[in-house]
Amino acid sequence: MRINRYLASCNVASRRKCEEIILSGQVKVNGELIRDLSYQIDEKNDQVSVRGKIVEYKEDFVYYILNKPEGVISAVSSRFDEPTVTQLIHDEPRRIYPVGRLDKDTEGLIFLTNDGDLSYRLTHPKFEKTKVYEALLKGRIDERGLTKLSKGVMLDGRKTSDAQVVLLKMIKGDSLIRISIREGRNRQIRRMCEMIGHPVVRLKRIEEAGLRLGELKPGEYRKLNKNEIKKLYGADKEK
Questions:
Q1: SS3 of 127, please?
Q2: Read out DSSP for the chain?
Q3: What is the pLDDT along the chain (239 residues), one digit of tens a residue?
Q4: Bridge partner residues of 208 (DSSP)
Q5: How many Å apart are CA 138 and CA 71, to the nearest integer?
Q6: CA torsion angle for 171, 174, 176, 177 (degrees, to 10)?
Q7: Which active-site residues does the annotation give?
Q8: Is 107 in contact with 68 (CB distance < 8 Å)?
Q9: Helix, strand or coil for residue 64?
């Protein structure tokens, strides 16, 4: 396993921060100073230290999928005593974190884990993990509007990437669409829909990185199985 991933798995810091720690000369392997980010660690035999302190590798990771209700924030804690996603996971002694974010007013799929490497792979833009949403839009969207969403709109001076957009049905004069994106800009779908004149009435994430929310009701969650975890990592997982 690469040294930066090893340190992140030991909860030294985030993966990116671990890279800084390595490059600044604070890490030794078997007494030898290591600055090479590609250095491979034998987790069973190598002794790794950070600033002179031995770190231990314990692969005791947990993975949850949660249907986040509206009104709950995607964070570990809140300065304003708002309910958080971690408070919904009961009887879990380990400290876990939400992977990415869903807006407070958005419902749907969010992963929680203590595996920093997986969190990195799901959130870093270079891995381009697909996220699928169902959005109820104000008014009747026409083909022109659907095409605009699918080909991208300008947000903050930069065009959004191509999206897959399908009109599912009309609900009392409003349009229910399914939209798939590979980006994660702040409030992206809400802003895209506002740009074409159809603000979002309700938004729900139903799929991410190939895993679907399924029958989980708002506030319900479950642990992921081994096959699901493997699917989230994908074929590009580092050894």
A1: helix
A2: -BHHHHHHHTTSS-HHHHHHHHHTT-EEETTEE---TTPBP-TTT--EEETTEEE-------EEEEEEPTT-BSSS--TT---BGGGGS-S--S--EESS---TT-EEEEEEES-HHHHHHHHSGGG---EEEEEEESS---HHHHHHHHH--EETTEEPPP-EEEEEEEETTEEEEEEEES---TTHHHHHHHHTT--EEEEEEEEETTEE-TTPPTT-EEE--HHHHHHHH-TT---
A3: 889 888 887 878 877 899 999 999 999 999 999 999 999 999 878 999 999 999 987 667 899 999 999 999 999 999 899 999 999 999 888 889 999 999 999 999 999 999 888 998 899 888 889 999 999 999 999 999 999 999 999 999 999 999 999 999 999 999 999 999 999 899 999 999 999 999 999 999 999 999 999 999 999 999 999 999 999 988 444 43
A4: 131, 211
A5: 20
A6: 160
A7: 103
A8: yes
A9: strand
Q: Residue 23 corresponds to which tokens in the numbers above?
A: 């490059």
